[in-house]
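User: Study the fold:
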Amino acid sequence: MYAGAGFDEFEHLEQAYMPMLHHNPNTSFSEMYRCYPVVMMQGNERENINYGGKIILPPTALAKLAGLNIEYPMLFELRNTSNQRYSHAGVLEFIAQEGHVYLPYWMMQTLSLTEGDLIEIKSTTLSLGTFVKIQPQSPDFLDINDPKAVLENAFRNFSTLTRGDVIQIFYNEKVYEILVMEVKSNNTSSNGISIVETDLEVDFAPPAGYVEPQQPKQSMASKIKLEEPIADTKGFSAFQGSGQRLNGKTVKSPSSIASSSKSSSTFSSKLEEETNENGKNDDTPNIPAPLNLPFGKLFFGYKVVPVGANKQVENESTSFKGEGQRLRPKKK
């Protein structure tokens, strides 16, 4: 009786505790929770939770995860069982109420969840990401001076990135929505990646609704810039000085004869006209005609008569015309 009773009692204890003592090390964590946005969580409000990619689970979840063979960092797959939409997230703390899970508001929008809806949370493993392509959902994102530094700081609040998610970041008192278009791990496309302690290459797509400014079409004539001559009001005009003629007659100004831009033939015709006019005047000698010298004969020029030489000769001829007297009379 005793022995049988002891054996039966041990057998009963073995059936109760053996599943716990010999648990499957590959058993994954999977639970159903009521989801709520993090703004409804009691306690101090923290903006980095709402603009990040981490969730808050109850303490019992930590107790279950501790007994499983879970890789760190702990990553989870969140799935809306009603429409099969899913995303990925890390865990920040285990301080939620029992049966509740708190999510960032953008994650509830991505999964089409409302307050109090059921959500399935399963532990998962994701490869380290190497590439992500994102698209800002507003052209206002272009106003950020250094978007690379802003994203690097914002991604510190994320553990994972999932293709198709529209995440939110907070910068300079403004919320920016960003679509995750593509993610890669070791140059291989995947649905989700881990971005914890990894070098991530980020590619930007043009923001949604962005229209490039149209540049006016330029004609070929407008492309070739021809410098037009600038009219000089003061200007430089050649041959503005006054000249002297050999015959002593005043020379007309070049402006009255011809402009400097006219050809030499026009200028010579003007000189011929003046020559003809001088020939008609008997008071002044004619200008010598061109010489037609025979072969072998040299011409060394005309005699140079200085201006006013004729007047000087006349003055000399009229000087000392009186008769002189001697002290002694001439001898006859």
Summary: The first strand starts at residue 30 and ends at 37.
